[in-house]
Amino acid sequence: MKQIPIPSRRRLVTLSQILQQLKKNGARVTSSEISALTGWSDATIRRDISLLCVHSGRSNGYEVAALREAIAAALDIRAGNGGKRCCIVGLGPLGSSLLSGTAFSGSAFSLAAAFDTSMNRIELLDSDIPLYLTTELKTVIPAKEITLAVLCVPDQIAQEMADRLVSFGIRGIVNYTNTILSVPDGVTVENANVVTALTRIVGASGSSL
User: Fold this and answer.
1) Are residues 90 and 17 in the same domain?
2) The Cα angle at residue 46 between residues 44 and 51, in degrees rounded to 5
3) Per residue in 99-128, pLDDT tens?
4) Relative to the CA of 129, which of 21, 57, 140, 208 has its CA 20 to 30 Å away?
């Protein structure tokens, strides 16, 4: 798979979402139209798309479906075949809200399992997703070939749980805790902290909101 720089990868993920919204509004899209929607410069957009070996865009534009397929192929996020398997760890209010699986619908990812430390919580939750105690991480993760985890545990056990997940084969973590995780090379963490996101918005605005 072709290596794509992280900033470009993040923009391409966003672009894929935009193209999904545009698919009923026309067959082609130009870099200028993408710029108007995102605020990215035409040059940045064309440079990112050039990493996909897709050409055109300044005048007659890119074919929307083909561009989406090129992004999916380059980022290895094609939907289908059961998707890349992920799990939720921590079934408090946030983790349990993700159990419906609608967030994963139509994506390249499938929710294969969810874990919690509390048997009482597992027994009370109504879900089509298989639920397990965290003591079963060691057997369930490799058995179900899960490589991605969404971490929603309390902050004080986040690093310990991340260490366990990595040791059992997890190679990517979406971190919903306030803990900055330390992971070995080859493991990727994407922090999804709402306060951090709000801070970035305020900082980017250049004025008081």
Assistant:
1) no
2) 100
3) 986 777 777 888 999 999 999 999 999 899
4) 21
**Three-state secondary structure string covering 159-194:** HHHHHHHHHCCCCEEEECCCCCCCCCCCCEEEECCH
Q: Which of 124, 179, 127 is nearest to 155 (CA)?
A: 179
8 Å CB contact between 151 and 161: yes
Check residue 1 and give its pLDDT.
47
**Cα–Cα distance list, 163 to 87, 120, 143, 173 (Å):** 15, 25, 19, 11
Q: Answer with the residue of higher pLDDT: 83 or 7.
A: 7
Distance CA 149, CA 2 (A): 24
User: Does 180 lie in the same domain as 90?
Assistant: yes
Among 154, 192, 188, 185, residue whose Cα is nearest residue 172:
188
Q: Where are the alpha helices (DSSP H) in the chain?
A: 6-22, 31-38, 42-50, 64-75, 93-97, 119-124, 137-143, 158-167, 194-205
Domain final residue, candidates 50, 75, 100: 75
Q: Is residue 24's pLDDT more than 60?
A: no
Tokens of 58: 């300044």
Q: What is the pTM of this model?
A: 0.77
Distance CA 155, CA 151 (A): 10
